[in-house]
Known about the structure:
The protein is an alpha+beta fold and about 190 residues long. It has helices spanning about 30-40, 55-70, 80-85, 95-125, 125-145, 155-189; strands at about 10-15, 20-25, 30, 45-50. A 4-stranded mixed sheet has the order 3-2-1-4. α1 (about 30-40) crosses α2 (about 55-70), α4 (about 95-125) runs antiparallel to α6 (about 155-189) and α5 packs antiparallel against α6.
Amino acid sequence: MKKAAAGSGPVIIKKYANRRLYNTETSSYITLDHLAAMTREGRDFKVVDAKTDEDITHNVLTQIIMEEESRGTSMLPVNFLRQLISLYGDSMQAMVPGYLEASMDSFRRNQEQFKSAVEGAFANSPFAEIAKRNMAMFEAAAEAFKPGAAGVPGAAAPTAAKPAEGGDDVSALKAELARLQDKIEKLAK
Length: 189
């Protein structure tokens, strides 16, 4: 059996009566966790009933969501679920899937933009400099507690110099925070 190149088309997963899932691409049995990982990786797959060849992808994806929700960290609020259930049989039911899909696409784009903005904002910011200074102070403190390290030169110097710099750091942090809030507000518009 030939392996399909990643992303060249949906991987066919066969579900047998004994509830086992068989990945036809890798010729191996897999679990729902494997399918969840494939989904996170952006891998397209189609789950079919091994006996009838019926497409049961929707049911299996719903099952994955149910398992994820039962693990303790709920992503779907109860009110959302109630509203969703109330839309079944409603005249607007046909519009809901398209609306939810468009909303999730928009959320994903906003999430990527927000992540990029935050990463860019912190790359060369006072936060990066503070992290470097904190690490240096931690290393100096660790050196001071090593056996035979009494009187380590410069061990007390970082704390003595901090009060003079502290005001500048706080001002820089406030300015950076204000700049980030402006970016977030612009992204929200």
